[in-house]
């Protein structure tokens, strides 16, 4: 039985990939020539990352990683956050650590002294704003359970886990341990599926965690939901998962989003955006907006609207993290 939960020190603590995003514009022809998985995320090795970097045009470099991006959005909305992720003792590792701490997020995971280097994600953005991601996980895939600050995990109201990091074995063990620690402390566990290919590889794990009641809040998009359930019909798949997960949030791109919480169901339309520039981080920021409302006890419909507003902001510019004053934007838009 879980211990009686004490007053949390943090609203959200996340475990995820510590990655620096390298973002460049490209043409549709570039995507075809480089044989990239348009609109998806593909894992690459160090040589592949170097090859794609050489093929990129002028680029911007910004700290990323799905869960870290979500925390960056949450921190702007006055949500107290901490991050656990692995970087190497190199320049990209220093960039990542500086950026996340500058955002007001606590980050104290010890650096990894040996190879591989800090992870990076090479993102090619076509004229329609679609992003094609090619990720070298680097040091992130060697996050050990021994690097977890279990007292820190137990002190957060919500443990937020990134599906991308479930793929490598070592951080998967660490995340399983983190779930155990959080649940023993009476905390909630949130999980984002991240990408359909992750479900293809680890769907049995995810379905077992859902069946065992280990996930309190689940984030998926429409494609991921279909992969998870095997159902082509959205409502059929949604209802099947909603019956097993206390809070389910499913985003549907331009069609908005749907959520259920303890039998209540709510929907929202997509927030308007003048021009879609780069869809990188849309799901991450939707989760940030939703969790910001959830952490404050707001109604389900308001949580969804917050998510839609945050997603619309991030797709209006390059990069996976907010650039606008999110508090002011929320006050204006809600």
Question: Treating each run of at least 4 consecutive H or I residues as one helix, how many helices?
Answer: 12
CATH architect. name = 3-Layer(aba) Sandwich
Q: Identify the CATH homologous superfamily.
A: Ribokinase
User: What oligomeric state do these chains adopt?
Assistant: single chain
Number of strands: 14
CATH class categorisation? Alpha Beta
CATH topology: UDP-N-acetylmuramoyl-L-alanine:D-glutamate ligase
Uncertain spans: none
Distance between the termini: 39 Å
The overall average pLDDT, rounded, is 94
**Beta-strand residue fraction:** 15-25%
Strand order of the largest sheet: 6-5-1-9-10-11-12-13-14
SSE arrangement, N to C:
EEHEHEHEHEEEHEHEHEHHEEEHHH
Biggest pleated-sheet summary: 9 strands, mixed
Task: Report on the architecture of this protein.
The structure is a single chain. The chain has 334 residues and is of the alpha/beta class. It has one domain (10-18, 65-117, 138-333): UDP-N-acetylmuramoyl-L-alanine:D-glutamate ligase (3-Layer(aba) Sandwich). The chain has helices spanning 28-33, 46-55, 66-76, 91-102, 150-154, 169-184, 196-211, 222-229, 234-242, 282-295, 300-314, 326-333; strands at residues 10-15, 19-25, 41-43, 59-64, 81-84, 106-107, 118-125, 131-138, 156-162, 188-192, 217-221, 247-251, 257-261, 264-268. It has a 9-stranded mixed sheet with strand order 6-5-1-9-10-11-12-13-14, with helices on both faces. The model has no long low-confidence stretch (mean pLDDT 94).
């Amino acid at each position: 039985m879980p211990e009686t939960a004490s007053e949390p020190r943090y609203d959200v603590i996340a475990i995820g990939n510590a990655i620096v995003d390298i973002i460049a514009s490209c043409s549709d022809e570039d995507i075809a020539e480089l044989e990239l998985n348009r609109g998806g995320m593909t894992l690459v090795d160090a040589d592949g990352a170097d090859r794609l970097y050489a093929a990129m045009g002028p680029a911007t470099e910004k700290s990323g990683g799905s869960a870290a991006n979500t925390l960056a959005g949450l921190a702007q909305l006055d949500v107290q956050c901490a991050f656990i992720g692995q970087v190497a003792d190199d320049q990209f590792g220093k960039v990542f650590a500086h950026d996340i701490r500058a955002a007001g997020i606590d980050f104290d995971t010890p650096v990894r002294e040996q190879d591989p280097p800090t992870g990076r994600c090479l993102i090619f953005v076509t004229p329609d704003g679609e992003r094609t991601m090619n990720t070298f996980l680097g040091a992130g895939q060697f996050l050990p359970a021994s690097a977890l600050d279990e007292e820190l995990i137990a002190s957060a109201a919500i443990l937020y886990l990134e599906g991308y990091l479930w793929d490598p074995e070592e951080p998967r063990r660490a995340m399983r341990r983190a779930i155990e620690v959080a649940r023993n402390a009476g905390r909630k566990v949130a999980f984002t599926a991240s990408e359909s290919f992750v479900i293809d590889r680890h769907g049995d794990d995810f379905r077992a965690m859902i069946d065992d009641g280990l996930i309190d809040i689940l984030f998926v998009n429409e494609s991921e939901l279909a992969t998870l359930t095997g159902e082509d019909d959205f409502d059929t798949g949604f209802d099947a998962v909603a019956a097993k997960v206390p809070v389910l949030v499913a985003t549907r791109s331009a069609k908005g989003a749907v959520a259920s919480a303890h039998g209540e169901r709510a929907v929202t339309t997509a927030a308007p955006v003048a021009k879609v520039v780069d869809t990188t981080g849309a799901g991450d920021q939707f989760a940030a907006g939703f969790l910001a409302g959830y952490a404050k006890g707001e109604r389900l419909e308001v949580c969804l609207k917050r998510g839609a507003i945050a997603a619309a902001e991030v797709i209006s510019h390059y990069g996976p993290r907010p650039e606008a004053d999110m508090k002011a934007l929320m006050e204006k838009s809600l």
